Inverse folding.
């Protein structure tokens, strides 16, 4: 049924590929991930190809996104954090474009699947852990040992800190996924009300204006959420990278 | 303004022009003021939005920690065969970590981190971040 609000999240394979019994099919999700990366690359390459000293609109937009992420990273992790700029910028642009792509009717929202957002979050935390150990060695573990805690309580506090650290990729991924999923379902449900209400004759058509207004409003809200979620993801990435750079307590 | 070419009335017209310009500026200012969105209204909308954002952020922080604690306990139990003690203990620890997460997100706990002087920039960044939490939204 076309009215099913969950149907938009179904994954179906476009080009079935199977290697050694494992399904590697090229799905609609893969297609939209490719489209997202393609769109980001096209946007950045084409808009900056003019290299004008006085930027035109497109170049200005590209420069603004650069400045935005660079400022965010510099604020959170300092100048040393700038070596992670490619990672943070790619993540931000990918999430932003994937979210915005999802706003097109009939498009698939890549970030509405938790495995995608979880993979992104694990990429961040993996970078934090790897870089932390590479740079500080075992000193990175000081992240889990707060200062000024009585020795008796230390094991307990350490365990809590470790769990708190491990919960980061979960909350990072769940937040993005849940926002996109919930937003798209709400949108679909309200849009569905219009159709089913207008089936009740003249009064129904009059009444269906209310969900129509709601749908328009939620669409605007969803655009906001798309941007905010990309921003939050990038900001938290910067904060976690800051922990990798300065784990000292 | 266009009649400033008359040399005899240069001074007078100049003053006249000035008052005329002033009038027009005032009128323009009024028009702009009328079009500008009410700051109080906007602030209220922003606060509402960030409240919603904060609610989601805080709850996800809290739930994630409990979830991780429980999963870790269950996993350790299945390895060491200590069912159900690992689950019970780590679930409680996860609860504590969740509360810690929430309080950190809200900036209620002075984060013990960054107490050492070399990381002062990180301290500032963290403090700024807690301040920004409101507008960060999620």
């Amino acid at each position: 049924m076309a009215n099913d609000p969950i149907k938009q999240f179904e994954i179906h394979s476009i080009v079935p590929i199977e290697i050694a019994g494992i399904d590697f099919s090229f799905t609609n999700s893969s297609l939209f991930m490719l489209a997202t990366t393609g769109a980001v690359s096209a946007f950045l390459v084409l808009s900056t190809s003019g290299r004008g000293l006085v930027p035109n609109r497109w170049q200005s937009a590209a420069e603004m996104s650069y400045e935005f992420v660079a400022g965010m990273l510099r604020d959170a992790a300092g100048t040393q954090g700038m070596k992670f700029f490619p990672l943070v910028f790619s993540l931000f642009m990918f999430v932003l474009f994937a979210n915005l792509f999802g706003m097109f009717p009939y498009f698939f929202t890549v970030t509405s699947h938790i495995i995608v957002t979880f993979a992104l979050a694990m990429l961040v935390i993996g970078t934090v852990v790897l870089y932390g150990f590479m740079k500080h060695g075992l000193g990175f573990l000081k992240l889990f040992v707060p200062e000024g805690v009585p020795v008796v309580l230390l094991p307990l506090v350490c365990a809590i800190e470790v769990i708190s650290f491990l919960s980061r990729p979960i909350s990072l991924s769940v937040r993005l996924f849940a926002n996109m999923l919930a937003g798209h379902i709400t949108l679909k449900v309200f849009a569905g009300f219009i159709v089913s209400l207008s089936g009740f004759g003249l009064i129904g058509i009059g009444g269906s204006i209310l969900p129509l207004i709601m749908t328009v409003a939620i669409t605007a809200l969803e655009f906001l959420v798309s941007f905010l979620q990309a921003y939050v993801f990038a900001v938290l990435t910067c904060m976690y990278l800051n922990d990798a750079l300065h784990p000292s307590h | 303004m266009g009649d400033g070419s008359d040399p005899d009335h240069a001074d007078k017209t100049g003053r006249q022009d000035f008052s005329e310009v002033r009038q027009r500026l005032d009128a323009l200012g009024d028009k702009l003021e009328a079009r500008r969105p009410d700051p109080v209204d906007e602030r209220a909308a922003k606060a509402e939005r960030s409240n919603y954002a904060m609610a989601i952020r805080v709850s996800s922080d809290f739930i994630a920690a409990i979830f991780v604690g429980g999963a870790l306990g269950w996993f350790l139990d299945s390895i060491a065969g200590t069912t159900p003690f690992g689950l019970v203990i780590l679930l409680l620890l996860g609860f504590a970590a969740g509360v810690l997460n929430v309080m950190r997100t809200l900036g209620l706990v002075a984060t013990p981190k960054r107490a050492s002087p070399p990381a002062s920039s990180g301290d500032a960044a963290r403090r700024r971040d807690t301040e920004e939490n409101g507008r960060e939204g999620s």
